[in-house]
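pls design
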């Protein structure tokens, strides 16, 4: 098993993820969470790490707010795309770009960071707990982790809705090399357990795309997008919808040193 590098499908990734209704919903829902998360952190320009940041859309939004953002990615192609986007947005002065895996980014940091984004990366990593430990070590006491992962529950539900019963068995994995279907879907309680084992306190959970991907008519995804987005944003933090999201966004804080006194 090995971690996924997107050099070979960067264009396909951008077209099928960022340029779609599912990408817009993901961006809108997670940005709501991040706005709340930022309010819980010191009210100053923050040091932020976007680990596996891809094209850097979220990183650029944070840089626009005046925060200092370091984006790393295993893919050199993604790094180039993120740097170009930052230049287009006029935020290059607030950003750094390093080609590195999340597991090794600590050696490139001069000091710990206030906030780490780790979005849609965990499901492409062969040893997820190793990556989470490495990122935990990069976080300041009292700092926050914004983790979004591919939900095994959502994958099962989607396959059943489509009638792909042969793909429901957990041992079945898509084998197409250029597929955008994540390699290692995760069971939510297991991921929550990993965070708690690190000593992190989970402060919020959000389902990302709790309705969109289950619609029988794809036309509704575009024709009724505004209504669909409103429904997503209304229900995404309520159960059972959280646990049925195609992705789950979980927010957690590293204990403050004062808390242990």
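designed seq:
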């Amino acid at each position: 098993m090995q971690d996924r590098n997107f050099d070979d499908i960067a264009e396909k990734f951008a077209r099928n993820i960022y340029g779609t209704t599912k990408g817009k919903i993901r961006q809108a829902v997670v940005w709501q969470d991040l706005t709340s998360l930022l309010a819980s952190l010191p009210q100053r320009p923050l040091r932020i790490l976007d680990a596996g940041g891809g094209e850097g859309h979220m990183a650029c939004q944070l840089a626009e707010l005046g925060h200092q953002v370091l984006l790393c990615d295993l893919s050199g192609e993604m790094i180039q795309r993120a740097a170009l986007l930052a230049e287009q947005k006029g935020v290059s002065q607030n950003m750094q770009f390093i080609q590195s895996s999340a597991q090794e980014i600590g050696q490139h940091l001069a000091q710990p960071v206030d906030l780490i984004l780790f979005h849609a990366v965990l499901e492409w990593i062969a040893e997820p707990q190793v990556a989470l430990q490495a990122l935990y070590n990069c976080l300041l006491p009292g700092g926050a982790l914004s983790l979004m992962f591919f939900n095994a529950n959502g994958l099962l539900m989607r396959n059943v809705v489509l009638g792909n019963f042969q793909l429901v068995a957990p041992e079945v994995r898509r084998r197409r090399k250029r597929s955008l279907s994540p390699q290692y879907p995760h069971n939510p309680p297991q991921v929550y357990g990993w965070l708690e084992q690190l000593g992190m306190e989970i402060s919020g959970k959000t389902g990302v795309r709790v309705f969109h991907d289950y619609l029988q008519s794809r036309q509704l995804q575009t024709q009724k997008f505004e209504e669909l987005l409103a429904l997503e944003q209304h229900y995404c933090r309520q159960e059972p919808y959280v646990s049925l999201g195609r992705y789950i966004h979980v927010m957690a804080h590293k204990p403050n040193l004062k808390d242990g006194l």
